[in-house]
Amino acid sequence: MATTDNSANATANRIILAFEIVMMVISVAMIIVGLLQNKKSQTGLSALNGGNEELFTNSKERGADKVFSIWMLSLGIAFFVITLVICILTNTILK
């Protein structure tokens, strides 16, 4: 009985490790996409002190800006979902 518990626990640890590796790859990809994004947009801090003059203008993203924005949103959602999966696996399987 103890050997099956140890093998199941080892398998659970391997699954969690695989998810953690995927999460690390996603986080590095998010950093790279964030560095590649356009720097024309003002930060939120400049909006607080009145430095953002284009705060309420209607501007659409085009080309590479739109692609990077979609990638960042997708990677952020994937990061969030994988974080929840790791949390659930850790709390249910390893108890």
TrEMBL record:
Spell out the subcellular localization from the entry: Cell membrane; Membrane
Q: Which residues form a coiled coil?
A: none
- Which residue spans traverse the membrane? 15-36, 70-94
Chief localisation class? membrane
Its keywords, alphabetically, are:
Cell membrane, Membrane, Protein transport, Translocation, Transmembrane, Transmembrane helix, Transport
According to the lineage, what is the superkingdom?
Bacteria
- Give the membrane topology: Multi-pass membrane protein
This entry's Gene Ontology molecular function terms read: protein-transporting ATPase activity
* Keyword presence, Membrane: yes
Q: Name one GO biological process term.
A: protein secretion
Q: Does the keyword Transferase apply?
A: no
What is a single cellular component term in the Gene Ontology annotation?
A: plasma membrane
> One Pfam family of this protein, by short name?
SecG
Function, as annotated: Involved in protein export. Participates in an early event of protein translocation.
Q: Which NCBIfam families match?
A: secG
To which protein family does this belong? Belongs to the SecG family.
What name does UniProt use for this protein? Protein-export membrane protein SecG
